[in-house]
Amino acid sequence: MTSYIWHPIWEEGFEMRYEVCGESCEESAYDAMESDMARMTLLAHKAALFERIKQKIEQEEGEKLDKIAALLVGESRSRMKEEREADKEYEEFRAKLRYAFGE
Predict the structure, then answer these.
(1) How far apart are CA 24 and CA 80, in angstroms?
(2) What is the DSSP-derived secondary structure letter of residue 14?
(3) What is the pTM of this model?
(4) Which letter does DSSP use for residue 13 in this model?
(5) Euclidean distance between the first and final Cα of the chain, in Å?
(6) Segment 50-74, tens digit of pLDDT
(7) Contact criterion met (CB below 8 Å) for 4 and 26
(8) Domain containing 67: what range?
(9) Domain count for the chain
(10) Is the Cβ–Cβ distance between 21 and 27 less than 8 Å?
(11) CA distance 91 to 99
């Protein structure tokens, strides 16, 4: 009789997906659960450390990061506006060209 064990496959970041382990499993259900718990502990530790690092960076460099973010957002908006204007001008050119060929 085949026993099926759901075990996680850890993905980059802090997400995981599961797959079914059937006859090819070499782990018992207990071994798989123990392994999962060890992985979850490591994942929780990494997540907590990541949050602490973010908090420390925010404390020490928050104002500088705000200025950098404002510059990046401003530049992005400027580029999008220029692209929209260029697209509009190109469409006007195409309409004029179609009109010219239509005459």
Answers:
(1) 53
(2) S
(3) 0.45
(4) S
(5) 80
(6) 999 999 999 999 999 999 999 999 9
(7) no
(8) 5-102
(9) 1
(10) yes
(11) 12
